[in-house]
Amino acid sequence: MGFDAYVDVAKHAGLREADALLEALARLEGEPGEIADTLRRHHLIRLVRGVLPEERLRARLRPELVGALSTRRPVGRVPVGTLLRTFDEVRQALDAAGVPILVLKGFTFAERLYGGLERRPQHDVDVLVRPRDFRRATALLAGLGFARYDRDLHSLTVQRGAIQVDVHRHLRWAPAFAIDEDAVWGTAVAVPIDGIAVPTLSDEYAVVALVLAAFEDVGQGMAKLKQLLDLHLLLRELDAATDWAGFFTRRAGENLLGVAVNVLALVTTLFDADTELPRLSGALAPHRARTALVHRERVLALVSAPAKHPANLAWFARVYPGSLLHYLVWFWWGGFPANLRRLGPAWLGEQLAVVYRSSRGERS
Predict the structure, then answer these.
(1) Which of 78, 90, 224, 255 pairs with 97 at a CA distance of 20 to 30 A?
(2) Does the model's pTM come out above 0.85?
(3) In 3-state terms, what secondary structure has residue 160?
(4) CA distance 351 to 136
(5) Would you say 211 and 259 are in contact if contact means Cβ atoms under 8 Å apart?
(6) Does one domain contain both 165 and 176?
(7) Does 101 lie in the same domain as 159?
(8) What SS3 class is residue 246?
(9) DSSP string, 165-209
């Protein structure tokens, strides 16, 4: 059964299908500790525990696996309610200073897609500010007691106690992307959660944000099933009322058509969801020539691959909508000086291999 069974665990946990989830867990093969570690790595431990009480696990699963699951701490140590109240504190402080803020994923997905705040694993708060407000936002957070913790190409992480906030200035950014920032902010909505108004992305840009995150993470061999499950559950909710042809037309204007087509096709294939998503499947059909992966076993291999696997890097290179050389230079410089540790014959050979494999233009 292999990784297929982990996909079934994710899907049935997300849909809260207890009997099917229990059978999927029973089909997992391998050493119990490795199974538990894989479930944790894909952020599935909390989802499983939220659907199945321990007595049901003990009645159906081998004792060694139940024991291994019980010893793995779920991702997210801070109660989600605490994270929600922290977000509200941050939002009020930034609003008072004239800095608008949107929450990404998190609370809105937990309530809408999983049936409650505590059901969806969450270990930090992801927020979006306009690029022009980024420095002011981080300064205001410092005034609230948050200290700089980490940074990457897309966000700055600040921390106060055990609570981390990731501050993004773009949904995702790369040299070839042309995301309509005015549309992102102009279509934003406010969602009431536990009496708190939570400004967040429109449905369309929530899909775009998940697509871009999945594109990068799958392409780097760092995908999490929970992340892909978020997108699958959102697509299930939106499919019947969405004009996917119009969605793809707007993504073409943002130079994201190939990325959107490939990620949505990957998720549909991964969760075997053609019949669940008939409108999306029909809209994807005319774009089949753009799809780099057409076989489910290759999709499973990419999602389960280790970090920086050559096949994942090659998939990313094939789908990326601009100059790969330009992207690599940008990516390398954006990680300076930490990337100096990678520089050497092996790293250079890996990058050249990616360029070569992507240039062959094969579908798999």
Answers:
(1) 78
(2) yes
(3) strand
(4) 37
(5) yes
(6) yes
(7) yes
(8) helix
(9) EEEESSSS--TT----HHHHHHT-EEEEETTEEEEE--HHHHHHH
